[in-house]
Specification:
With about 350 residues, the protein is an alpha/beta fold. It has two domains: about 5-145, Glycogen Phosphorylase B (Rossmann fold), CATH 3.40.50.2000; about 165-335, Glycogen Phosphorylase B (Rossmann fold). It is built from twelve helices and eleven strands. The protein has a six-stranded parallel sheet with strand order 8-7-6-9-10-11, sandwiched between helices. It has a five-stranded parallel sheet with strand order 3-2-1-4-5, sandwiched between helices. Strand 4 (about 85-90), helix 4 (about 95-100) and strand 5 form a beta-alpha-beta unit. The model has no long low-confidence stretch (mean pLDDT about 95).
């Protein structure tokens, strides 16, 4: 059977998981320049893919005209006009499964999420590094006939900063650190009172740029900006494309097990991560980072870690497991590698 010439890639959410497709697609397109790739995802994520060679973008309006089974049928009809000949489902959820039913006759490969080994990890049956999510994505393309070598990645050059974005660099003589202190679940976050100590110490020698989203986050980060010199918050001020340009000019990102870590990693930045009840062994560490860049909670104090893959399940008393990583360890690690 001939190899596909045009692959449709399905990944609808979440931000970090979509970002993790980027280095895989960059390697795939570079190593197989004859291949045409179309990514189907939400419009919000378009900036992730705009600089990838041979990669097109198609908007899935899953809350509008593509909502529900009928909407997915409409989406399938639109996509068929693109004349793809294979489907890489790197999401493998109900929506993508329904959509694939309408692609009868096309070769389809879906993501192997490794549920059994992840269950063994979170239940305490085993404690070892599992295959990374990036490699799981690459395996989908290998099953379609395209090997993807992730061992020697390339990254885009930082984009020029506009005057608006340059204003977030307080001192032109300092290196710049991004800090994204929030995550989907509090159990994945470093306690804010400890993070403030980290920010205070780093701001003496570096520009610190704070990233966040919701109204409460904006308020908290703005308070930190006013409290310390060389600290700026971008929360609520930039669109995704502008954030990516700013991140591309960072010297280092400090983040939780969250989307910001993957956005920085896909741009080739150094990323220090702090882990609470989740653990990098599950395969969700940011791309191409040394293992010692992941600062994990103390398992002598919290032996049941990882308590879940996504941080949504944990025993009582584990809410602030990340606090077992000391402020001094974080600051010294950053200073050692920046």
């Amino acid at each position: 059977m001939p190899k596909p010439k045009h692959i449709l890639v399905l990944r609808f959410s979440a931000m970090g998981d979509v970002a993790m497709t980027v280095p895989v697609l960059r390697a795939l397109s570079a190593q197989h320049p004859e291949l045409k790739i179309t990514v189907v995802t939400r419009a919000f994520f378009r900036p992730f893919f705009q600089d990838l060679e041979n990669v097109s973008f198609y908007k899935a309006d899953l809350k509008g005209k593509h909502k529900g089974v009928l909407g997915l049928y409409k989406l399938s009809k639109e996509l068929k006009k693109l004349r793809f000949d294979a489907v890489a489902d790197v999401h493998n959820v109900l929506r993508s499964k329904i959509l694939k039913l309408f692609f009868f006759g096309k070769k389809v490969v879906q993501l192997n999420k490794g549920r059994a080994e992840k269950k063994a990890l979170t239940s305490g049956v085993s404690f070892k590094q599992l295959k990374t999510t990036h490699q799981r994505y690459a395996d989908v393309f290998e099953d379609l006939g395209f090997t993807v070598d992730l061992s020697n990645p390339t990254f885009p050059k930082p984009k020029p900063l506009s005057a608006q974005l340059r204003a977030f660099h307080s001192n032109k003589d300092f290196k710049t650190i991004g800090i994204a202190p929030f995550a989907a679940h509090e159990s994945k976050m470093y306690p804010l009172e400890q993070m403030e100590t980290v920010i205070e110490q780093l701001s003496k020698d570096y520009n610190v740029v704070l990233f966040g989203g919701g109204a409460k986050e904006v308020e908290l980060l703005n308070q930190l900006e006013t409290k310390y010199t060389n600290v700026k918050s971008v929360a609520g001020q930039l669109n995704l494309e502008e954030e990516l340009i700013l991140i591309s000019n960072l010297d280092l990102m400090l983040a939780m097990d969250s989307g910001n870590s993957h956005m920085a990693a896909m741009l080739g930045k150094k990323v220090i991560t702090i882990w609470g009840v989740t653990h990098p062994f599950a395969g969700f560490a940011p791309f191409n980072q040394p293992i010692d860049f992941a600062l994990t909670a103390d398992r002598t104090q919290f032996p049941l870690i990882p308590t879940s893959i996504y941080g949504n399940k944990f025993p009582e008393g584990y809410e602030k497991a990340a606090s077992s990583v000391s402020e001094a360890v974080i600051v010294s690690k950053i200073k050692a590698v920046i």
